[in-house]
Amino acid sequence: MGVAQEKFYYSLVEFTVEEEIVLKQLISNLSNDDTKEIYQQYFDLFTTYSRFKRILESKDLPTKHKSEIEEKLDLMKINLMEDFHSDFESFGHKLMLVQKPEDLMFLEDEEYLIKTLIFLCFQYVRTKKMKNTFSQKFENHLTILPKYFHVLSFVLATGMANGLRFYKQTKFIFIENISKVDFITSDQPITNLLEDERDELGNIKSLEFYYPLSPKVALKIHYKDEGLKFDHIKATEEKVNCLNHIVFNRSEDFIFACTTKELENYKNCL
To answer: What gap in Å lies between CA 25 and CA 138, rounded to an integer?
Structure first.
């Protein structure tokens, strides 16, 4: 089993002027002084294709010339977004190579830490489950078009990472699986172990990320005051089964394991 990463093919989408106004207002509502500038850059990037397309359509150009420009726009529509996603995915490269506790020491570097947090939060928020949760949260306020969530996943991940980096004491726990049972993972690659703890309004009260990296290695990231910044624990079969049940229950469409036989123990979770 490797790290679960569903393969997506991304491209910029076309927004109407009215849709851009709504999107900009939504992003503005999610902004603060720390994130306002980067969120504006996200908005500009994600609406680039739409703006150029409208400019092109407003010009009276020869058909051949217009077709050539449209071809270049179509390439930009795909390549720009794929490159942007690749940059975000690359933030987690060193994390996915972690095999022993001391491999986490790269997180002492400020730049690597913030990039890793952005990667973790992006993996957490970009899934179908989070998309549905976010849409439900705002359903009484405005219509969240499905194509909005693409840019909102970057906005939410960046905002969450910024908050965790600057306002919380982040702890990284290396979980060594010493049992004969392997870790499993799913299309929800990172899960919040405290997801069921809610306040009176139904909002999640806290975060404790769980991220299985391989059959024998996983990470837990929490933001409590107690404990070391970097810690190492060994997971017995009972603990591994407990974590696997959580992963199984919170998956949407896919479970990933070394063998199908390993999933038999969890089929009663359905």
So the answer is: 13
